[in-house]
Amino acid sequence: GLIGLAAIGLFLRRLLLATAIGPTHLEISDHPLRPGGTYGVHLSQGGAVSFRRLELVLELEEQATFRQGTDVRTEKQVVWRELMCCWDRLEPVPGRPFEATLQFKVPARAMHSFRSLHNAVGWRLVLRGIPDRWPAFLRVFPLVIVPAGPDAAAAVVRQPLREVVS
User: Fold this and answer.
1) Residue of 20, 60, 73, 152 with fewest CB within 10 Å of its CB?
2) Would you say the pTM of this structure is higher than 0.90?
3) Contacts of residue 107, Cβ cutoff 8 Å, sequence gap at least 6
4) CATH number of the domain that residue 108 is part of
C-alpha cells in the first residue's frame, strides 16, 4: 500500500539524483600514502547540474566500538580536516564532466591508518557538493597511510580507490 508507494518514490528520487549529479571519479598518483608525501589528485565530476559549491577535503576519522550495557555502539568522529580545494558557481559543459587536477601533502606527523576489533583510524578524501535545486551530497574515498619508514608500503596490498557510499 502506502509504504510500498513511498519506497518506490524514494527509490526513484535517489535514482534521479544519482543520474543528474553523475558519477565522481578520483585518481591519485600513488597509493598507499606516506606521512609527509606529496601526491597528485585528478577529480572528475559528471552530471548535468550546476553547483553552488564543490569542496575536496582531506579528513582523518577515528572510530571506536564499545559496549554500553548490553548494546554495542560504534562512534565515528572526524578529528582533523583540511580543505584541499573549493570551487564556487560551476556550470556544466554539455557532454563533458568537470575536471580538476591538484596536489596535496599528507601531514608529516600524520597517524598511519589502523584498524582493530574496537578501534580504527582512517584517512579519506571527501567531495562535498552543493548543487542548485538538489540536496547536498558527499562522496567518500578511503585512503591508506602507512607508517613512516622505507619498507612500510611493501606490507600493504595495493588496491584501487573505491567510493564508499555513506
Assistant:
1) 73
2) no
3) 35, 36
4) 2.60.40.640
